[in-house]
């Protein structure tokens, strides 16, 4: 794959995930730029108004109970701290298996997301549960490392047992217009992932415009990303509703054009059940009910799960619960 | 010159140091003792109460962790700011409770004095309620009172200022944070008090004042698992039922008196001790 690292090399292969219809848009830097800039622009005011309007839906009683359980099953329970230890990852895995120890009817979360060196700990703790082990890689969160280092990071995380890889794109290259560099890097990382699912973090807080979010989404999908993810959680603003709206439109349009379905993962800043339900409403209205599934939609979060559990307890017991009534990690 | 147009007031709640409208969007009109319209007040819903508890919980670490001396200074500052607005309070108390101007002014003075009195207690509680315990063993053993957590206060329905302060000040003096449901018929002094709290040095969320119906919100606060204590003074006939609900989560309960007491008397410690936990430390020594 060395030739992929060189965008000027002749006879560039079609990216593994890229469908035939778009095989030629990455033939050169200029062609790719022309394609990405030819995507319809995002009406900023319209997108924000639509996201705000969808956020006003009132979801109550049985629909709320369904939404809470669905949201719990979509959570990528995340710990990305410098102070993480194997013990903390194991207790997080225990929480992932049984989020509410007092209530066996509470669904499991979708995955546990850790740094690559702790992926083995997470995989062992989650063995036999069906919960995925996700690891962040490619010099997360900045993405500032040479490609060799990034690819080694990915292979190491996969070798440690991660079956989902969360990579960050090179925002510096993207913002300065070197789209093909970014594309090649995603393709190379996808290959290094092997069978592991690849989530591509766009870090929308650094992309500045919704047009850039749409371009980055298409770039990541053309390069073979299985998921597009908003943020690392280390940059503010992280996941916002309008950004998620633009990304959901992108995956919807991508499937309409190519038949390939790509997942979406907002991450960072989603802390309350209300926020989560707003996202679920938006998935249903923008992308469609096909995405209302942990296979196609995830929440990257740490504190969101606690609030979902508190709301779940409120529905079950009829009275408000408090933070003393969920397990700490 | 034309006649000045009257400013019609619609007040809001005081939650987390901010003045939000009720989540429900509801308001109700407040009348004076003779039935004339005075202002609109927000009618808090159970979700406002829930938000207030979240704010009070968030503020608890800072407030209970502040030194007792510092808490005393802050409460004294509340008295200072309140003194400066005494005329406004007196007018509201006179209108709401149907008192003469002189009696209303006396109630305001008593309320200000009550803040000062409780401000003085913050750094004396540990000395009065705690101490060393003689034990038969090689230990230095001592007990200290600690604040219990978030306390819900159903404020007195009749005494709209002196009663309110007499219920709120002891909770804050112990280091607890409070969610107060004001008198339903006479909420204006509580609203003005929230403006006083916001402009004195009380951190946001330490005291949250909700105007509305205690009969509606009270049960939610009594059942709330994140409320550690409840003062049922203003609960009226529902008090027994609320006590029962509060038992479900082992809350500290300050029971409702049979009838609203005369608030001008010496309050003693009886309104502070229910919201204090005793921590006892066994320290090995002599080995």
Automatic annotation (TrEMBL), chain A:
Q: Keywords assigned by UniProt?
A: Lyase, Schiff base
Q: Which Pfam families match?
A: DeoC
Q: What is the reaction catalyzed?
A: 2-deoxy-D-ribose 5-phosphate = D-glyceraldehyde 3-phosphate + acetaldehyde
Read off the NCBIfam families from this record: deoC (TIGR00126)
Name a single GO cellular component.
cytoplasm
UniProt keyword Lyase, yes or no: yes
Task: Name the family the entry cites.
Answer: Belongs to the DeoC/FbaB aldolase family. DeoC type 2 subfamily.
Enzyme Commission number(s) of this protein: 4.1.2.4
PANTHER family for this protein: DEOXYRIBOSE-PHOSPHATE ALDOLASE
GO molecular function terms noted in the UniProt entry: deoxyribose-phosphate aldolase activity
**Organism (species):** Klenkia taihuensis
Q: Where is this region: Disordered?
A: 1-20
Q: Which domain of life is it from?
A: Bacteria
Q: Which InterPro entries match?
A: Aldolase_TIM (IPR013785), DeoC (IPR011343), DeoC/FbaB/LacD_aldolase (IPR002915)
The stretch of residues making up the signal peptide is none
Q: Does the keyword Electron transport apply?
A: no
GO biological process entries: carbohydrate catabolic process; deoxyribonucleotide catabolic process
Q: What class of enzyme is it?
A: lyase
Annotated metabolic or biological route of this protein? Carbohydrate degradation; 2-deoxy-D-ribose 1-phosphate degradation; D-glyceraldehyde 3-phosphate and acetaldehyde from 2-deoxy-alpha-D-ribose 1-phosphate: step 2/2
SUPFAM superfamilies documented for this protein: Aldolase (SSF51569)
What's the protein name?
Deoxyribose-phosphate aldolase
TrEMBL record, chain B:
| Domain of life of the source | Bacteria
- Aldehyde dehydrogenase domain: which residues? 30-254
Gene3D superfamilies, per database record: Aldehyde Dehydrogenase, Chain A, domain 1
**GO molecular function list:** oxidoreductase activity
Keyword annotations for this protein, in alphabetical order, are: Oxidoreductase
| Short name of one Pfam family | Aldedh
Q: What InterPro entries does its record include?
A: Ald_DH/histidinol_DH, Ald_DH_N, Aldehyde_DH_dom
Q: What protein name applies here?
A: Aldehyde dehydrogenase family protein
């Amino acid at each position: 794959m060395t030739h992929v690292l060189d965008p000027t090399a002749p006879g560039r292969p079609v990216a593994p995930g890229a469908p035939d219809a778009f095989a030629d848009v990455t033939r050169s830097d200029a062609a790719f730029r022309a394609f990405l800039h030819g995507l319809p622009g995002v009406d900023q005011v319209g997108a924000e108004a639509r996201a705000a309007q969808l956020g006003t839906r009132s979801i109550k009683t049985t629909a709320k109970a369904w939404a809470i359980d669905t949201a719990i099953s979509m959570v990528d329970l995340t710990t990305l701290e410098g102070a993480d230890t194997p013990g903390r990852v194991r207790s997080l895995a225990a929480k992932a298996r049984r989020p509410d120890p007092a209530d066996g009817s509470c669904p499991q979360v979708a995955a546990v997301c850790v740094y690559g060196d702790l992926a083995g700990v997470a995989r062992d703790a989650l063995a036999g549960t069906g919960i995925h082990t996700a690891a962040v890689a490619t010099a997360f969160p900045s993405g500032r490392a040479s490609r060799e280092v990034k690819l080694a990071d990915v292979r190491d995380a996969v070798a440690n047992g991660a079956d989902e890889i969360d990579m960050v794109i090179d925002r510096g290259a993207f913002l300065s217009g070197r789209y093909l560099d970014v594309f090649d890097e995603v393709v190379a990382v996808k290959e290094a992932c092997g069978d592991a699912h690849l989530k591509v973090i766009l870090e929308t807080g650094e992309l500045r415009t919704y047009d850039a979010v749409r371009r980055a989404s298409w770039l990541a999908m053309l390069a073979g990303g299985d998921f597009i993810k908003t943020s690392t959680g280390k940059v503010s603003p992280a996941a916002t509703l309008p950004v998620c709206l633009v990304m959901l439109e992108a995956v919807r349009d991508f499937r309409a054009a190519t038949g390939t379905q790509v997942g979406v993962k907002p991450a960072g800043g989603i802390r309350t059940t209300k926020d989560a339900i707003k996202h679920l409403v938006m998935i249903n209205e923008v992308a469609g009910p096909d995405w209302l599934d942990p296979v196609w939609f995830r929440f990257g979060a740490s504190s969101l799960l606690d609030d979902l559990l508190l709301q779940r307890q409120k529905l079950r017991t009829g009275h408000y619960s408090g933070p003393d009534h969920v397990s700490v990690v | 010159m034309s006649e000045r147009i009257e400013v019609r007031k619609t007040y809001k709640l005081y939650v987390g140091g901010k003045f939000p409208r009720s989540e429900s969007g509801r308001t109700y009109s407040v009348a004076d003792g003779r039935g004339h319209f005075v202002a609109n007040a927000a009618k808090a819903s159970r979700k406002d109460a829930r938000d207030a508890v979240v704010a009070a919980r968030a503020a608890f670490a800072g407030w209970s962790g502040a030194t007792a001396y510092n808490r005393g200074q802050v409460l004294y500052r509340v008295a200072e700011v309140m003194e400066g607005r005494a005329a406004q309070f007196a007018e509201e108390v006179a209108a709401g409770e149907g008192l003469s101007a002189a009696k209303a002014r006396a109630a305001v003075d008593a309320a200000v004095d009550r803040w000062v009195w409780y401000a003085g207690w913050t750094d004396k509680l540990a000395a009065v309620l705690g101490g060393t315990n003689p034990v038969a063993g090689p230990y230095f053993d001592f007990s200290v009172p600690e604040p219990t957590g978030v306390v819900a206060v159903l404020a007195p329905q009749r005494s709209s200022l002196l009663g309110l302060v007499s219920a709120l000040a002891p909770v804050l003096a112990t280091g607890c944070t409070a969610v107060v449901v004001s008198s339903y018929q006479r909420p204006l002094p509580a609203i003005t008090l929230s403006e006083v709290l916001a402009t004195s040095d009380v951190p946001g969320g330490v005291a949250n004042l909700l105007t509305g119906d205690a009969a509606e919100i009270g049960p939610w606060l009594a059942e709330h698992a994140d409320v550690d204590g409840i003062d049922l003074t203003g609960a009226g006939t529902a008090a027994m039922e609320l006590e029962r609900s509060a038992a479900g989560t082992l809350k500290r309960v300050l029971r409702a008196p049979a009838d609203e007491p005369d608030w001008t008397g010496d309050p003693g410690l009886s309104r502070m001790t229910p919201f204090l936990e005793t921590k006892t430390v066994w320290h090995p020594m002599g080995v």
